[in-house]
Amino acid sequence: MRTSQPNFLTYLRFSFTFRLAVIYVAMFMVSFGILIALSYWSMVMRPYDDVLQRVSGEMDDLAYAYVVGGEDILINALVKRVDFPSDRKAFHVFLDKDGNRRTGNLPSWPNPPQLGPVEIEADRYFGGDEIDFQALSLDRVFADGARLIVGRDIEDIAERRETLIEGLVWSGVLAIVLGGVGGIFMSMAVGKRIESISDAARKVIEGDLSGRVEMTGAKDDFDRLAETLNMMLSRIETSMEAISRVSDSVAHELRLPLSRLHADLEDLAAAADKGQPVAGMVDTAIAETDRLKSVFESLLRIARIETGRHSIEREEVDLVHLVNDAVDLYQPEAEGHALHLAVALPGQMIVRGDANLLFQMMSNLLDNAIKFARQGSVIAIDLTSGEGVARFIVENEGAGIPPEHRQRVTERFYRVEDTPSQGLGLGLTLVKVTAEAHGGQLEFADTDRGFAVVVTLPLSDVRD
């Protein structure tokens, strides 16, 4: 059942991508604010403090001159101060106790007197043109009521301050707008990709294992994630199909032996009632139960190996010894079918693995070769190495497994049509999972003499 989609604002509220974009914008603003603050201190506050210290020192000197020397000495000092070359223009105004201007180049001044530093407009006129100046001034009222205001030009500092503040405001607004819009679009783009994953997951929940995550071909993180998820879904679909086939196959395989066992037990009961000998019937029933037991043991062993629950002993194993043991075991059966086992083995070939599982794998291959070989033919058994792997080869004369069946013969209970059903249909399955559990693989090949089954295993060491 498809879940309802949230509205846009609710989606943004709970969208991790949008929240991440907001956090990124906030972090950018904080970082940008710190940069502006450092720039403000370096370009505005520090030169501002320098000017303030300079004006404060001048005020102290001029006040001392007035207190000690009087008005004339002060006015003379103020004139010299204005005429003295400096990187910052000097401004002042001196008022008597009645508020009349005695001297100065300030067109206006604040009233009443201000405590502390004050920024004032200090416009100047040159050739009839007004030139704006911003000045940092200090104000002092003397004991006799006279008032002195002195200052220095800070027009450049004021302009830098205004520029930095405007830059901070506009950058902040732009960052918020672009971050918000970018966050929305990024959230929508990422949300679309995530929704594709959710759609595939919902299909699986509803039982449709064919659903896959859409890939854009951008080869980005989402495409890599989609590829991994699709591989997982394909594996799940394959596993579920295999489980379904196994269930059907198990039911089919067990129906006949269970029916025979049931009939044998009925015959056994009837014979016992009549006092007839029952030993043969008991043996037949035991044989059927042994067959059923073999089926379940093989299925269990395959399942344990596939799922990794079978503890595989990783020890050095000499394949030459295992092959010799397997050949010795099946030599009498081969001779009983008028078959010749042609064995070609090196002196030693070492792999790391479970000797019991590897021996069972080789035995299954020899058993299959003997069952399906033509009477009087030769079965070649070779053990070779190269490119870091060992190759165990069992070669029959004849066509072997038809090419159209080779992909499926390793499935549980699969049998090639028009061939006698002599086994459980699990031998090649066990061979395949054992080889793969040891890092190898099972292959089929047509040869000059007929057909070969090849098992490759990683070598641990090779000494011929």
From TrEMBL:
This enzyme's EC code(s): 2.7.13.3
Keyword Phosphoprotein included in the entry's annotation: yes
CDD domains in alphabetical order: HAMP, HisKA
Regions crossing the membrane: 21-42, 62-79, 168-190
Domain HAMP: 188-241
Catalytic activity: ATP + protein L-histidine = ADP + protein N-phospho-L-histidine
Subcellular location: Membrane
Enzyme class: transferase
GO cellular component: plasma membrane
UniProt entry keywords in alphabetical sequence: Kinase, Membrane, Phosphoprotein, Transferase, Transmembrane, Transmembrane helix, Two-component regulatory system
One function term, GO molecular function aspect: phosphorelay sensor kinase activity
Residues in Histidine kinase domain copies: 249-461
Entry keyword Phosphoprotein: yes
Main localisation: membrane
InterPro entries: HAMP_dom, HATPase_C_sf, HATPase_dom, His_kinase_dom, HisK_dim/P_dom, HisK_dim/P_sf, Sig_transdc_His_kin-like_C, TCS_sensor_his_kinase
One Pfam family this sequence matches: HATPase_c
Name of protein: histidine kinase
Lineage: Bacteria, Pseudomonadati, Pseudomonadota, Alphaproteobacteria, Kordiimonadales
